[in-house]
Specification:
alpha+beta; Arc Repressor Mutant, subunit A; 245 residues; homodimer; Nucleoside Triphosphate Pyrophosphohydrolase; 6 helices; DNA-binding
Chain lengths: 245, 245
DNA sequence: ACAAAAGTGTTCTAAGTACACCCATGC
DNA sequence: GCATGGGTGTACTTAGAACACTTTTGT
């Protein structure tokens, strides 16, 4: 198994998870920690994205799927390959060199970066072999390698994509309220949206379906629940070439 | 120099060139031809994208820039890295295997695909060491490797991108007529656009500047010339988060 | 009864869409 | 003077933007 790794090629995964309760868009990161064997000095103590070498027999998409499964146990989540990072010096700051000395890494490693969209509630971090933790996109910790850059580029891509495609619903539970969708847009884009205009716009979409259900267990007026129908979306959607530049 | 190649990593370039006269969006391809040494049977006779291995000391962007320069002599053209292709079997059809036997290629090569936007008139194919030729995007020849797939994905990305960013002007001469812009949109998107509505829309953009010039040397009524101002575009442009999904 | 969040309507403005003829020029 | 492509105007429809109060529910 180990022998099948392509040593200069990896996939890194930016796992976005939205927490409906705290209204926070988070990124799942794993701890990187290394103490000197001799002086017990802490050499490396930060966070990185999950990633792994591409194996010789698998596609890039397979690698990403495998990496996500090992971290979260989840499969079939929305994923997107968004950029390759391959600068010759991307792994060459001192902390990273110390770390790499412990691992079977080529110095010149190209990484194909993916991002995933899912709900934090679907991930159980307790039974996790990595020290994985959610961080709000706006309060990232100290990051190793070029992973801060990768995360920020993923985030830019996500911002753009959520305006033109209904990927926002990948971040929400199957049943959601209109206000939850609005909160999510506001979190991602960092803007305020007028509630009346937003409701009208969303409710008028045929692929947003009002359910015969309301929230339960909330301590105030329970809100109407809706679902998103990918089927209806696909059927009605024909690209309508709106040249806005 | 040769020794610095990363054997399992390449960059392939989809060079889009627009010909204002023939109103054709073209792709620049190079000939791939191989005869058997013994039977003089033609083993390979098709076209491929230009590409080359990434060198150990250069960034991916550098590789793309170098490849374009070697093919066309041009630098400073619009380029975009749009996708990595790395399936284990992407180079394994019989014709490709014959070809690869002649070259220093790993079977499992990952390619980072870029596309370029330029004007066919800027490229001089006469003094070209490759047998390079323009092909209309809708009449591509027989293509080697997975290059047809790569071209079609580049084209999809271009279609999408030209709707939201002013990259269309990279394909046009500095001074252009409104109808030339319309023709270009129609070529790329494969749609008809109402001329009156299009003119109004375009002329109202502050970054489209009417010049004190008309076409010369045309055999009919000469049209008003315009230019695109990237400066004005950048100054006025603030992303206006229009949620359309 | 009160706190909290859900939900509701109208007016104005900007932009898209549909549609058919005259005009200026080079030859 | 005529063929060719350049250029023009109006009415309608749709969607976005601005804006503040009432309703429902659980506690």
């Amino acid at each position: 198994m180990e022998s099948e790794k392509i040593l200069n090629l990896s996939v890194d995964c930016v796992v976005f998870g939205y927490d409906t309760n705290t209204k926070s868009l988070n990124v799942l990161l794993i701890k990187r920690y290394l103490k000197s064997k001799f002086t017990s000095e802490v050499l490396v103590d930060d966070y990185v994205l999950t990633g792994y070498h591409v194996l010789k027999t698998e596609t890039l998409d397979d690698t990403a799927t495998r990496v996500l499964k090992e971290l979260t146990g989840l499969t079939d989540q929305y994923k997107k390959q968004f950029k390759a990072f391959g600068d010759p010096d991307r792994l060459t700051n001192p902390k990273d060199l110390v770390w790499i000395a412990n691992e079977a890494f080529n110095l010149r490693t190209i990484t194909i970066a993916y991002y995933f969209l899912l709900k934090t509630e679907d991930v159980n971090l307790e039974q996790n072999t990595f020290e994985a933790k959610w961080f709000p996109i706006n309060a990232l910790p100290d990051l190793g390698f070029d992973h801060e850059k990768i995360i920020l580029e993923a985030y830019e891509d996500l911002k753009e994509k959520c305006l033109s495609e209904p990927i926002i619903f990948k971040l929400l539970p199957d049943k959601f309220t209109i206000n939850e969708v609005q909160d999510l847009y506001q979190s991602i884009l960092g803007i305020d949206i007028d509630n009346r205009n937003f409701r009208r716009k969303l409710i008028n979409k045929k692929y947003i379906i009002a359910l015969d259900e309301k929230q339960i267990g909330v301590s105030k007026k329970p809100a109407q629940l809706y679902m998103f129908s990918m089927d209806i979306y696909n059927k009605m959607f024909s690209k309508n070439y709106l040249i806005s530049m």
